[in-house]
Amino acid sequence: MLSFKQEFQLKNFKFNYRPVKDFVTSPWFPTPVLIIYRCVFAIYSTTWITYRLFAHDRFRKVVTMFYMTNWSYFTLINYFSISAGITIIHYIKKRQGKEHVIVDDVEKGQPRDDETRWYHKMQWFFYSVASTQAIGVTLFFWLFDYDGMGITLSDVNVHVLNSVFMLIDHSLSSMPVRVLHVVYPMAFILLYMIATVLYWALISKEYIYKKMDYSTNPGLAVGLLLAAMFIIAPVVHSFYYATYRLRAYLAAKLTKDDSEELGEEMQGK
């Protein structure tokens, strides 16, 4: 694991990491556990958003394409779908004894098995964005957008379970977190801000969210988005980084204790 000082090296903006098994394993459970819950989360999220779009007319309007909730939820779906697929393929290859790359492939410039490939990088990118955005969207909804008129199943699914799913994966998997990867959820918010301004300027003057009305209070709308970008995203990402280091510490301690216990048993024999 990198030291805190090493985290700020420019190369850590990239998605290079070893060992890549951390993308598809858990420090606590065997790989099939990851496969099960990642598949369940991917299928559940995809099924729910599909139902939401087809069962309710208001979710088929153009404005729904500009809900941060939907942007965030689609990154979550992409993350769990990609993660589930990669984890399944890794597990099958490992069971078949094909986890080692052929020497000829290495000589031809192909990455080794302990180097991140394009699909690991894609998985990590969506993880960095989806994890931070999930909590950010949950906080925004319950603090600023919830009208107190009861809680619907839709509210629970896209404003509670989104964070629960990401926190479960963060806690149970070995997914790494880089400090400098905070730029990706920040860039995501910037892109969303640009999209909302274009929607207001070119499509409709109606607000997307009550607190983000560019027509009546543009200062508040821009202020909230800037706060999300420069305060909420870094704070949430820092939380993930801190708990990632705690998880790695506990996992290393557990492995050390198991090794010492095994050594004592061997000596006893």
TrEMBL record:
Transmembrane segments: 28-51, 71-92, 124-144, 180-202, 222-243
Keywords: Membrane, Transmembrane, Transmembrane helix
InterPro entries per the UniProt record, alphabetical: Rost (IPR049352)
Pfam families: Rost
Superkingdom, taxonomy of origin: Eukaryota
Keyword Metal-binding in record: no
This protein's name: Protein rolling stone
Coiled coil: none
Gene Ontology annotations for the cellular component aspect, listed alphabetically: membrane
Organism field: Exaiptasia diaphana
